[in-house]
Amino acid sequence: MRRPLSPTLAKLAEQELNETPDRIQQDIIILRVWIRQQPHLRARTEDDFLIAFLRRCRYSLEETKRRLDRYFSYYNLFPEIMSNRYITQRLLDVNRLGMFIYPDLPKCDNRTALFIARFGRLDPNQYSLREIYHFTSMAMEIVALENDYASVAGICEIIDLEGVSSDKMRRFDKQFFRRWWSWLHDCSPLRIKEVYVINMPKDIQGSIMYLYNMLSLQVNYPIRVLKNAEELFDHIGKSSLPEEYGGTNGHLNESIAYMEDLLNSYRGYFEQEYKYGTIEELRPVEMATYEAEFGVNGSFRRLNWD
Predict the structure, then answer these.
(1) pTM here?
(2) How far apart are CA 2 and CA 253, in angstroms?
(3) What CA–CA distance (Å, rounded) separates 219 from 297?
(4) Nearest 5°: CA angle at 181, between 239 and 18?
(5) Between 129-146 and 47-56, two packed helices, what is the crossing angle to 10 degrees?
(6) Quick one: average pLDDT of 176-198?
(7) Domains in the chain: ranges and CATH
(8) Angle at alpha carbon of residue 147, lines to 112 and 30, rounded to 5°
């Protein structure tokens, strides 16, 4: 059963995402019919899952279909993060590292949800980058289903580089990171609105600025490099930041515990993962039909894009 949005988020969803409450169920039915008609596609069809993708695509049915197809295609294309997605003790240990933090309801001024990535907490002798992003793909899917601020207003991400040494950068798998970045850009049900990079050590500035310049050309949201956490106050505000970053929005350990509770509550959900993916041998190769261009039953809509 769908959760009703708060009045503030409902207005934001209507203005920015073209969400019309009276039309949501119709769109869900259209997507379910389309999924059943695809011989190669084994996709989830729960209401909240489809709504998350509709919001990510601003209720463009055709873009939603493409993103869903890509998402489940990546079960084959990127098995390092999209296969064997089960709640294990090792996964809970990765969460307890506190490398990726997903606070519960961080109400920034623009209503975006706050994500914090602390790469300095990764010990490559204990955990691989594959394990980290395997966890992150699962956490982001849960957040897309549970956090309306994230699914409606998008994500404000803080990348904290404190503790990242030149040795860690040399061992950083840049090719794997590029694949992850493609998944995030092309498949994820969450929309990043802005990124802030803080606490960059001088000895890794060259490597980080190379990645910064490369990624900035590929995205349509700002990536800002700040000197320290204090500069975040000018962009996010103390009321939205956790106390470890000088704010008043709870403690990071509370967010870690919150995510562990969510992971445990989603054990049954992820135990169904074996059902999903694509069978590429069955993918149809044909000219685009009327439905492919305009949606089932002519459901094409004129959308208000930014």
Answers:
(1) 0.88
(2) 29
(3) 33
(4) 60
(5) 100
(6) 91
(7) 7-84+276-294 (no CATH), 89-267 (3.40.525.10)
(8) 105
